[in-house]
Amino acid sequence: MAPQQAKEEEDLPSWYANLWAPRVDLIGDIAGKEPxxxxxxxxMRHCLEESPPDFxxxxxxxxxxxxxxxxxxxxxxxxxxxxxVFFRDLRDLCVxxxxxxxxxxxxxxxxxxxxxxRHAEENARNGARAAVLEFESVDGREFHEYLEGxxxxxxxxxxxxxxxxxxxxxxxxxxICSLMRRGKNVAIINALEWKSSKAYAPLLSILPKEVQPxxxxxxxxxxxxxxxxxxxxxxxxxxxxxxxxxxxxxxxITACLxxxxxxxxxxxxxxxxxxxxQAFLLHLAVLKHCTLLERQHWVGxxxxxxxxxxxxxxxxITEVSLLLMEKYEWTTSINTAECTWDLYDAIDGSLFHFTxxxxxxxxxxxxxxxxxxxxxxxxxxxxxxxxxxxxxxxxVDIPTETFSDHLDKSQVSALPFSHPxxxxxxxxxxxxxxxxxxxxxxxxxxxxxxxxxxxxxLLPPNKPQKLGFFARRRIQKRVADIVAYSASLTNARGxxxxxxxxxxxxxxxxxxxxxxxxSTESSSNSTQIRPQHHSxxxxxxxxxxxxxxxxxxxxxxxxERKASDKRDxxxxxxxxTCREIEKEPSLIARYLKxxxxxxxxxxxxxxxxxxxxxxxxxxxxxxxxxxxRKDANTRAVCLEIPDLPITIGNQxxxxxxxxxxxxxxxxxxxxxxxQQMQLEFAAPYMDRRFDSxxxxxxxxxxxxxQIRVLNSIDANNSLLVIAPTSxxxxxxxxxxxxxxxxxxxxxxxxxxxxxxxxxxxxxxxxAARYTKSYKQDGKSVWAIYTxxxxxxxxxxxxxxxxxxxxxxxxxxxxxNAKGPNAWSKRIKRIIFDEVHCIGxxxxxxxxxxxxxxxxxxxxxLSATIGNPGPFQExxxxxxxxxxxxxxxxxxxxxxxxxxxxxxxxxxxxPFQGLRRNKTLPVPGLDEGDRACPExxxxxxxxxxxxxxxxxxxxLSLEARDCLSLWxxxxxxxxxxxxxxxxxxxLSTALPDVISKADVIRWEADLKQALRRIMESPDKVFQxxxxxxxxxxxxxxxxxAPIQDKSNIFHLVVDLHRHDALPALIFHYDxxxxxxxxxxxxANLVVAEGKxxxxxxxxxxxxxxxxxxxxxASMQQTLIIRQRNRGKNRDDVRMSQDERLREEAxxxxxxWASFDPDEPLERFSFAxxxxxxxxxxxxxxxxxxxxxxxxxxxxxxxxxGVHHSSLNxxxxxxxxxxFRRGYLRVVVATGTLALGINMPCKTVVFxxxxxxxxxxxxxxxxxxxxxxxFDLLGNIVFNxxxxxxxxxxxxxxxxxxxxxxxxxxxxxxxxxxxLHGSDNCEFAASMVRSLLSQTRLYLGGPxxxxxxxxxxxxxxxxxxxxxxxxxxxxxxxxxxxVGHLYFxxxxxxxxHSLLRGGxxxxxxxxxxxxxxxxxxxxxxxHIFCRLPIKRNQKNVETARTSSSVIFLPPLPKEAERxxxxxxxxxxxxFKNYVKSYVSHNLTNTRDRILPFTQTLVGQDEPVHxxxxxxxxxxxxxxxxxxxxxTTDNFTTIHELCQTVRGDxxxxxxxxxxxxxxxxxxxQEFNAYLYDFYKHGSLDVLVRDNGIRRGEVWFRLKDFxxxxxxxxxxxxxxxxxxxxxxxxxxxxxxxxxDNEAGTTSSGSSDDGTAEATSSPTSVDDWDGAGYATLDxxxxxxxxxxxxxxxxxxxxxxxxxxxxxxx
Length: 1700
Prior knowledge:
single chain, alpha/beta, Rossmann fold, eight-stranded mixed β-sheet, 8% strand, Helicase_ATP-bd
């Protein structure tokens, strides 16, 4: 090997090890419905490594085909769109490492390619797109052209084995490098993990810079060498007759003929050759007639070792068959022949063993097999040139063999269980009852636990305590913060808000009162005559309103009076402003001042002013138009503009100006086509109403779709609304809230938001809108409840704003379900905002469970649902099962259009400060006299590649886009072709005066015509697309993205110059967001410093300032002396009043407010006209010290950062300042994309990221185009390759596939709900809803039995783990498991250690440091695990660093308990499959290949009927069992991967985790263990490889887990009657107050002290503790609790230090 090449190969591991590979959901987060590639050799290698077929003693080709099809079927079930691509020069990569028998893998590869290609061709005839292709090389021209025509989102590829001497690894990683250089992301297939409807894998993102290829010779570990190298084989032509032969038989006979007829045959012995060929043909006959289950019997223990000549014969047939299949002519003839395709099962090496043994023993076979054998031998003899006997050996007839089934046919047994609510649901599951056996190792633990329960009276009672002073202050401050926050949402000044006073309406109150009394009245005798008690008060006249009505009228009168005063003051203010504006000589300056006045007004002000300000703007534009035409002195083409429909309002006051009609008289004479003028220039100003009608229910004229929403809410129906951002969804939630508030004082509406930021915003908006008086103490209009904090009482409010996890906790809390007026029963409606989060990774399952369990009508809101039809159908079925009707409203049009640009920076001069010329504002970056060439417009249709046609429906075109598309169509097409494709005529398709609704209809017609063009065989579409692109890609190839860090700074400067701020910059890396803002801030500071140093103006200003300051200081000194002494010694000193009068009479100089250190306006993006400096400081000062100082200084320059790991107060400050208009540049991750009210003019996507998906793009871009402020939104892509931009724009939204919603912890929590609520009807109804309704992921009647079996064996697991009694009562440590539900399935591993007494024995050690270190080690193996590769880089780091990189092995005792737990779980769920098979599949044979749906073998046995029926009860797939494996499984993963294809078994729902190194080869990162030892953030980033932006989240998850364990143990040992489901929320980690809040260290409700109380005793050995009934208080479970508290405190202390 050359030295240079050796060096390059040494660089390859280093390059690959430094790549960042986040673990993502490839389906939901990345691909969705978009196409991706699967590298074929990688696919084969991975599948055959996961489930190795027998390629040694036997040759189980069908097993190999099956596992590949199963992988592809898993993708197909999840709605994936993929192609499979093989490369001939990489064919040797399909062989797993150190496997041998390369020719068998090559044969399997060729068969799989031919088999999948045939299936793809059949699907293509039915309109499917997927393809299976084979290219010569990854660097070949054909593959390059293929990639150009397909918008690939990623490539699934193997990355080899982590070992220095593995050559295949070098080739795999060179392949990855080659793909990434082409701009393709790469997902690692050998690290892929299936979880419900998702597929998780590390994803290598596109390289940030151009990387040179790393060449390597194609030297493989297992190169294929043919058996016939050097021989002259005579390939036999295809058999012509007989025609009835299958493809397998044709190939087999042809291969045998080739061997027999070759002149240099290696099989000279004719007798051995004849015997071998007869055995092979007999094996083909058996394949044709037997079942898969019979083959399991035949290929089992009856194998014999083949003689070398027969081994060579089988290899010769295999290799000749391989050569035949690779001949194009032979394969084509097979494909065109009318014969059965069965090459997927062409050879069974083990069966060949059996047939050869049968021949030698003369064992008889059934007649059908013998006849087929005779037929095949005759065909062979007729075509061969050699002399073979035409007679077959005589076989002895033997009776049908009876087979003693080795499988256990006994009925599956289970522990006894019965529950009144579940018995009916589980009645179909019939199990044999066995006796319960108590685990002796757990007896002592449970004895200790029962001790604490039995002595609960000796413990302090858990009574509600009065909040202390500081706790009340914290709550008051939170409420005040929300009120202040709400002011920014309503354009209120300062902290003044004017909410609407809500009074319960009489009809609603009467109805509620009757409902409350109905139970009492119904119990009494209706015929009983009751005495009437006459009141002493006179009766109220019928027409006199009651007290409630009078209060309602009074409230309305007060509101009307306030509104009237507000209108009068607004009109007066405008009149004064207008007079000042008219004094301005410049018309443009007048226009800008009037526009600024309009934008600063609230909605109420707009109503008061009517259209007067707009009319004044038109008046100024008319004057500007007249002046421009006079200056131009040109003649315009005459055009008659039609009369415009004008709605005349009822103006009640005198206008403040005189309108100049003369300037508009000649406006008709403008251009040749008024329709095109509107489409090209006036689209943002068009009428945007859609059948609007006045409606008294809302203070605006709703569109038709909004009226449907109002009607649905009034009818108390459930509602699904799908509408884009800014379309007008906001009113829906608040209308429903107001109805609940007006109905009664008890009804509850729950608003579920996906993020805490959105929770804060919604609560603030509610506080700003509504206020209400209550008679009861503790009642409120609104409350916030998240895992981190709460504001006001969650169960005492009427509008609860929360996150999904908390609502689930509340609904599962027994105290909220018991009683006639229980909180859960008072819920009237639940609003699910951003309901598409049901498809998310972590929380999606909670969303689905809540939708299934919701006890009332729901409102589901979303802007981005990729499959609205199936989702609506599922949700409708769920609601119908509860007696509710679901109304669906879909509105597809945004209020303001979005215009997309690519930023292409040009050469520029050094930055000298911000400048903005005073020009008329234009909506888009490419409009006006000063259009910026750096912003290149991207037409949406130009983003459609030829293979992305299905995305056409998802594209949104503005009027200008439609016009340009229509023009390009007419340029390219002839009139006849335009008519043929249905291109609409502009003059007839649109009216004279065009509205937004007209454009939408025209857009739909254009899309239909474009779709017909795209489907035509001509290349017309490509020509249209090329002209829309406005550039020639061939002549001007796209340069590589500029990675200059200052690029984003220049972009923001250009946006400022074009008045396109405020802007949100989305960058999907938390640390990267901070780097961007810090860089922009530093550029401003440096530029300001340089300007100050060189500016004469600044030097003069500072000189004057210093002179003033010196003079002012002298004057102040003199004044002080005079005050103290007077002018003479005998004078009397000045009084206080005299001093104040003197100070008031002194004229204040402008220098008094001058601060030379404040940012200069030209070096700051802040808009100082929106807020005074004092207002800004009120918001900024409380955040001082909680974030870095530069972040505070950046706020003062108009720059902010927003991501989830930042302090909550800082994030809210950013939101408020941005909404108020002071901050004008915010860099954020996706935290601002989900519904946060931070609208802006421009959205920038900075840098390509794997997380910039279709979903995130739609969500984030929806922030642009502020309704009521901006007529258009601008979207800018910066430092993203053009192809990637096109992919993002044309990508379709992913469908909502849901997840498997039944987890073991959920089953346990449901039993807790039933037991704690005494099986009340509400709890029983919720349980039935969750367990029996259709699932989004696993729906349909066919899945009902799967769900029932899963629930029953989850119960069996809970019973055997001593978590559930036979009567369904949660026992022992059930509450701990329930509290740790968010750590499923790791919580069950933790429970196995707790149950097994491991922590009890560990904490008995008197060395606390040793105990805590071992606890961290064990917990690191269970919770928050992070995989790590043992590559060269990590091994070297572990060798040279003091850090622990690879997690050390578990302690032996802990390992033993965890492995024992996994084996017990494996046994339970193996029985689950057995039970399911016995109940549902006794007469069903698993004989279908899952991807191609091909039937294999016969359905009825031909000979060994007993063997077939016995094997039918097997758990393992018969395809995989062909390799000699039985039902002896070693791991849960093996069970799930090899289970029968007709059995649903979700691995992620089985309560176990793989334990290294017993269950998995995957090692784990020691970052938690390492951090506990050294407490260094930098070391985690440098040595453990944790990205800086992820460290906080990972450490916080572990801290939260520790806190939950502590709270659970505390509640458990308290043994109180408190609601355990909610009680754990009372014990929060100091780090849980909010993301990044590390300064306070206390919880909201004053319970942090209670949590930490056991740590008040410093001695570890428990000396001095009292005893209770002979049990030492310092031993057993109490000692375990103290150890966890001390561990949490030490861990959090280190956490605070690194994050302070």
